[in-house]
């Protein structure tokens, strides 16, 4: 019977703490969202160029970079571009293929700028594959 008032005080205290807890959680949450925002929108580092490479996309910083970023990195990663070495004809064919089957828009004057950028900065590898093997001593597999 004597303990009852204490329990009452504790209960009241607990209820008084509730809003504090809520405010704390709310603040924490909004700080978190603010931090996330600062990585995405309005970050000047998005167009940072280090050692001639556009950091965000990994593309070579050269004439036509902006056109390539605008037109070629919305549907897929720029890695897909960097990994493909093609000549002018092949690039035009690839672009036509994407236009006919993947919904790539008409690039207009930018097509020449983009293809020039690609063939200049990502030229076809001199050796696409290893040289053919020569002077091999073949041996027969016994099958018994
Ligand atoms: C409208 C969407 C879209 C746009 C914009 C786009 N592509 Fe693609 N592209 C695709 C799709 C879809 C594929 C197939 C992806 C896959 O196979 O995973 C593809 C594939 C590729 C490939 C690989 C082709 C192959 O034979 O494997 C290359 C290279 C490429 N795109 C380059 C570009 C370039 C350069 C541009 C800018 C002119 C561009 N893409 C813009 C949709 C697009």
Q: How many domains, in number, for the residues?
A: 2
Mean pLDDT: 84
Catalogue the unreliable spans: 37-41
| CATH C-level label of the largest domain | Mainly Alpha
Q: How many whole angstroms does the radius of gyration measure?
A: 31 Å
> From the 3D coordinates, which CATH architecture of the largest domain would you assign?
Orthogonal Bundle
The overall strand count is 3
Total helical elements: 5
Query: What is the structural class?
Result: mainly alpha
The helix content, as a percent range, equals: 40-55%
Q: Biggest sheet, strands in spatial order? A: 1-2-3
Helix and strand sequence = HEEEHHHH
State which percent range the strand residues make up: under 5%
Bound molecules: heme C
Largest beta-sheet details: 3 strands, antiparallel
Q: Report the end-to-end length measured between terminal Cα atoms.
A: 97 Å
CATH topology title of the largest domain: Cytochrome Bc1 Complex, Chain D, domain 2
CATH superfamily heading of the largest domain:
Cytochrome c-like domain
The shape is elongated
Describe this entry's structure for a reader.
With 144 residues, the protein is mainly alpha-helical. The protein folds into 2 domains: 39 residues; 74 residues, Orthogonal Bundle (Cytochrome Bc1 Complex, Chain D, domain 2), CATH 1.10.760.10. The chain contains 5 helices and 3 strands. A hairpin with a 2-residue loop joins strand 1 and strand 2. The termini are far apart. About 3% of the residues have low confidence. The structure holds heme C (HEC). Heme C (HEC) binds next to helix 2, helix 3 and helix 4.
